[in-house]
Amino acid sequence: MDEREWLRRHRSYLFPNVILYYEQPLVVERAQGCWVYDHDGRAYLDFFAGILTVNAGHCHPRIVERVAEQVRTLQHASSLYINRPMVELAEKLAQITPGRLQRSFFTNSGTEANETAVHLARLSTGRQEVIALRHGYSGRSMLAMDLTGSGPWRPSGDHVVGIKHALAPYCYRCPLKLTYPSCGVACAGDIEELIQTTTSGRVAALIAEPVQGIGGFITPPPEYFRIAVEIVRRHGGLFICDEVQTGFGRTGRLFAIEHYGVEPDIMTCAKALGNGMPVGATIATPEVAAASTGLSISTFGGNPVAMAAALATIEVIEEEKLADNARVVGAYLRARLDALRERHRAIGDVRGLGLMQGVEVVKEDRAPNPEGTVRVMERARERGLLIGRGGLHGNVIRLGPPLTVTQAEVDQAVEALDLALTGLS
Ligand code: PMP
What is the pLDDT of residues 216-274, one digit of tens each? Predict the structure, then answer.
């Protein structure tokens, strides 16, 4: 069966809102390391890593082995019994996460991790109002869609009351039309007025990504979180750090918030935690976690296979020093992208941390160029390179390869991108 026939069946039997990349979407067949192979056996260099998920590389042999062993031994338990990998993973997360984060609740996705976090913050503070950021993305449940600060991802409007969206720390298109650093990071300071004017003054939490993923790798200035979190805490709120996309070495540190010198009260993880196995985690300080009263179970959350995958993934990230590789090879990728920007007027901005680098594609007048971005993606694919797309207008190329990527592979990717950008302005 050819690709067109698979597309026809996909269109017939899946919800129409399931977005697909490429005019003729890729039918993926298998993958290894930084490489993905399609239906016809064609190889692609994967610079999107299944939406920044396979940080240890596709089908890492050690993770595959651990998963296979766990499936053979105990595939399912439910949260009603103790399964050893679950306890081991919770203990490991307590050791490696920043600050005093210590107690975990496991789920199956980033969406659920964020749901759990906001619910916990509300229980812990006895308050309802939550601040999220414009251009942020929190997931696809009704609460998570409402937290999301991007219209296209929240098509049915509000469902949950008490969510306010603060300005994004989006320096390239500053919402206050200021320039860093003379702005004094006024977008963070504005949270004070947001609280005073649009809430009761009693907020439960600020939820934010250290680098906004779907928003187009919007990277806050170094002072941003210290200012924002201080304001929220002064008003009695907690800081929920969404590390779903940024966690587990992606930005050159194990967790991206470590770049900002702030300790979260609650952190959410998913994606790279299981290197592709469905898993989410909400991790909180002991005092905050103590508020998780009422009954709770999760049929699949803490599933031993997902837990084993996560334990093996963390081992690989630590032993292969993948955060260091993300820092070193990420700096190399960044330098090469900055050089591309000198030559291509269609590149308005290059931003990100480590192996999470965004390229904002613009027209002559700096207006977003989503059509051009789609063309770049198609042309890159023709040259055997997979990349992602994001931003409110869909005009930000998102580069996020597995953290095992080499400089030679970066060279290959940048050359393909260079050719794909040629003639676009
Ligand atoms: N938070 C962030 C920052 C994300 O990028 C995503 C997914 N792209 C989510 C939450 C939701 O995760 P999931 O798709 O696993 O529900």
Answer: 999 999 999 999 999 999 999 999 999 999 999 999 999 999 999 999 999 999 999 99
DSSP-derived 3-state class of residue 211: coil
Dist. CA 97–CA 206, nearest whole Å: 19
Ligand 1: which atom is nearest the Cα of residue 243?
3
Question: CA 51 to CA 316: how far, in whole Å?
Answer: 19
Q: Match 């031994």 to its residue by tokens.
A: 73
Among positive and negative, which fits the CA dihedral 250, 387, 269, 307?
negative
Residue/partner pairs of 80-88 with CB below 8 Å, 24 or more apart? 80/297, 83/302, 83/304, 83/307, 84/304, 85/304, 85/307, 85/308, 85/311, 86/302, 86/304, 86/307, 88/307, 88/311
What is the C-alpha to C-alpha distance for residues 281 and 103, in angstroms, rounded to an integer? 10
Q: Of the candidates 47, 129, 106, which has an alpha carbon nearest to the alpha carbon of residue 292?
A: 106
Distance, CA of 155 to CA of 153 (rounded, Å): 6
Ligand 1 geometric centre to CA of 40 (Å): 30
296 exposure class (CB count in 10 Å sphere: 0-12, 13-18, 19+): exposed
pLDDT digits (tens, 9 = 90+) for 383-418: 999 999 999 999 999 999 999 999 999 999 999 999
Please answer whether residues 3 and 42 qualify as being in contact, where contact means their C-beta atoms are separated by less than 8 angstroms.
Answer: no
Most ligand 1 atoms within 8 A of CB, residue of 245, 246, 267, 396 to mutate: 245
Structure tokens at 261: 């010198």
